[in-house]
Amino acid sequence: MPKEGVLIPIGPYHPAIKEPEFFKLIVEGENVVDADIRIGYNHRGIEYLAQRMTYHQVTFLVERICGICSNIHPLCYVQAVESILNLKPPERALYIRSIIEELERIHSHLLWLGVGGHVIGFDTLLMWTWKLREYVLDVFEEITGNRQSYAMMKIGGVRRDIRAEHRQKILKVMDEVERGVKQIAAMLLEDPVSRARLEGVGVLTKEEAGNYCVVGPTARASGLPIDVRKDFPHAAYSMLSFEVPVRTEGDVLAKTIVRIEEMLQSAEIVRQAVDAMPGGDIEVEFKEMVPGEGVGVAEAPRGEDFHYVVSDGTNYPKRHKVRAPTYMNLPSLKPQLIGYSLADAPIIIASIDPCLCCTDRLSVVDRREGRRKAYSWDELVYLSRRKTRRR
Amino acid sequence: MEAVLTTIGFLTLNLLVYPGFAFTAAVGLFLWWELRKLTARFQWRVGPPVYQTFADLLKLLSKESIVPAEANRLLFVSAPIIALSSVCVAALLVPVAGMVPLNFAGDVIVLIYLLIMPSIMIVLAGSASANPFGAIGSSREMNLAIAYELAVVVCLLTLCLDAGSLHISSIVGFNFVRYPLAAVALFLSIMAKLCLNPFEIPEAKTEIMAGPYTEYSGRLLGLFKLTYAMLLFILSSLLVSLFFHGPSTGFYPLDVLVHLAKCMVAVFLMAVVSAVNPRLRIDQALRFFWSFVFALALFDFVRAFIFSQLF
Amino acid sequence: MACSKDVERFAEDLAARFRGKILEWYLKPLAEASCVYFRVEKGSLKQVAEVLFKEMDGKLSTISAVEHASFFELVYHFTLSRQGILVNLKVELEKDRPEMPSLAPLMKGANYIEREIRDLFGIEFPGHPEPKRLILPDGWPEGKHPLRSDYKGVE
After folding, report:
1. What pTM value is reported for the model?
2. Is the pLDDT of residue A16 over 70?
3. The pLDDT value given to residue B6
4. Can you state the angle between helices B73-93 and B107-128, rounded to 10 degrees?
C-alpha cells in the first residue's frame, strides 16, 4: 500500500483524537497522499450482549454505547420496540424526549466546538465552550439527576417528568447558551487566523457525500438537506417549528457554521417545547412482547442514528442492530483527507465529530501469553472486580 | 596576572550567577509561570501557583531520561546541553537595565549566533530521535527558523546602522519611537522563536505529538524546558533593552526591577496574542513571516539606512 | 413526511415495477413516519437497490444480518429523505456458505457495513472492492464469527 512517502500514524492513541482508532496517513513532505482507516479498537460486543438481556435492560445497555450522545441510543431503541408493539407514548413524554434530545445536541455541539478549537491549537475556545457546556450539564443534573447517561428513556414513555420548577432554569440556561454561542461564533468566525485554518479545508463534495451515504451535520454542510427530525418526525418534532441549516461548501468551516446554527435552533426548540408541553401521563404500560420487527431512527448530534430490533416474542431481543452516525461518516474521511496538509488532518478528522465508542460496539487479545481468548461476561466482571480490589 | 584572574573570576560569577545562569533561570521560570497563569485567566481557569514551573522543572530533572534505541545517542544527549549552554552565554551579552558584563566589538553578531543555537539544536534533536513526528517537527522548525531569524537579524542591524556601531551597549535605548515597525517585527519573531501560538507549529501537539520533543523525557527534556524558560527572559529582555530602555533612576537595582517589570509587560502581550489565536499552518506562517514581518523589518532598515546616509 | 396512502402507493408501484422479483411487501408504523418492508428475491436485490439509490435519492442507512433457524436474513435499510419513507429490503441466504453480491461498487457507503457483517457473521460479499477485516483484529482465527449462534468463543 505505501506509495512514495512517509507513513504517519495517527492513532490508535493520539492527542488529537480522544478515542482509539487508527488512521494511517501516507505523507509526502507535509501533503497527505493516501489514507487508511482502521476501527475496532473499542469494540465491546454491545449487539451480542443485547441479545442476552431483557428488553428493559437493553435500554440501559445501549445508553452506555456512548457517553456524549447517551440519550440518542435509548431513544432509538425504545422507538424500535414501540414500533414492534404498536405503542403510542403520551404526548407529554414525546415533548420531554424532544427537550432531552435538543439539550443533548447543544452540549454535544459545544463539546465538539471545544475539541475543534483544541485541535487547531485554539485552547481558549476549548475552555470557553466547555464552560458554557457546564450550564447545560447542570440542567441535565437538575432534570434527570445525572450529568451524563440520563436514563430518561423507557419503552412507552420517559422515566422522569420535567416539573414546573425546572421551567425557569431551562429557559435561563437557554438564554445563556444563545448569548454564549453567538459570542463564541463571532470570536471564531471573524478571526482571520481561525478562518484561514477552516476555510476550504477538507472539502466533501455533494456527490461524494451522497455516495458515502453520510448523515447529520457532515451531510448538511455538503448541501444534502437531510434531517431525521424533519424527514421522519419522531418525538414531538412534528409539533415544533424549526429550521435545518444547510451549507453547500462542504469544508470544515461549513461544518462549523452548520453546528453553530443548529445550537441556536436547538435552544429555540427547547424554549418552544417547554412552553407547549401538555400535561398528563409520561408513560404507557405494555403487558407482553409480541413477535415482529421494528426500526428506530433519531437525529443524533452527529447524524441519523439507526436501531433495528427483531423480536421472537420472548423476553430477549432476537437481534438488535445498532448503527451509529459516525459509522457512515468515518469512511468519508478518506476523500476529505487526501490532498490536504498533515497539519489539516486533525481538524478534518475532528470535523465529522467522530464518536468511536458509538461506532465500535469483545475480544481480548493477551499479547503476553501469545494466545487469544474471548472472555465471557462473568469472567470480565470478575476481572474488573479483581482489578478494583487490587487498587 | 592577578588582574586576569580577577577578570576570569568575575566572568565566571557573571556566567553562573548574575546575569547568567542562576538569575536568568529564576526570572525565566517566573516569567514562564506568568505566561501560564495569564493564559489560564484568559481561559476562565484558575491557573498554576507561582512555584509550579520550578516544581515541574525539579520533577523533570529528578527523573530518568530514556534514549530511544534507534536514536543517534551522541546528538540526542548533547543537543539540550549545547542549547542550554549557548543560552547561558547569550545571557552575558543581553543588557539588563543597560549593563552588559561582556563588551567587545561585534558582540551583536555573536549574540545573533548564540540565539540561533537553540533552534538548531531543536532541529538536530528532532532528527536524531528517529521518530516520524520528530522528523516532521524538525523540518517545520527549520523552515520557521529561517523565516524569523532573518527578521531578527534585520531588526538588530537596523539599530546598529542607526547607532553606527556593532556594540550592543551602544544600541540600547528607547528606540520604539523611531523604529516601531522593527519593534513589532522583533516581537512577532520572538513569539515564533519561543514557539507560542499562533506559531506553535513545530511542536503542535494535536498534529505531531510534541514534534522534536516526542522522544525526550526526564532530565534531557528538563534541560530543554529550562532553555526555553531562560530564552523567554533573554528575548523579552532583549526587546525591552533595544526598544523600551530607560529612563534611568540612577540606582542600578531599581533599574533592574523596572526592567523586569517591562519584561513582564512584554510577556503579558505574548500571552494575549497566543490566547486569542489558533495555530497557523506552516505554509501560512511562512507566508506571514516572509511577506508581513520581513516587510516591517525591511522598511525600518531602509529608513535607518537613509538616515545614516543623510546625517 | 408521507401519509400512509402515499406509502401504500409507493410500495405498490415499486412492487409492480419489479413484479416477480419483489415477493411481498407490508407496512409498519414508525412514530409518525412510515416504514415499508419488501421481501426481495436474492438475485434482484442489486437492481432494486440501484433504483432506490440512484432514482429516488435514497441513502443506505445500514444492513442488518439476522440469523434464523434455517437461513440468514439480510435487511437493507434505505432512508428516502425526500419522500419521508423508510424502505427495508429483505433477502434470505442459505445457511452454509452464505453469499450476497456486494453493493459497495454501487455506493461507497456499503463498504464498511458489508465488512462488518463479514467479520461478525461470516457472510461473504463477492465483488467487494477491499475485502479486509474491519472490526476483528488481524490475528483472529478464520471461521470464527462472534455473532453467529454457534459461536462459543475462541481458544
Report:
1. 0.81
2. no
3. 83
4. 160
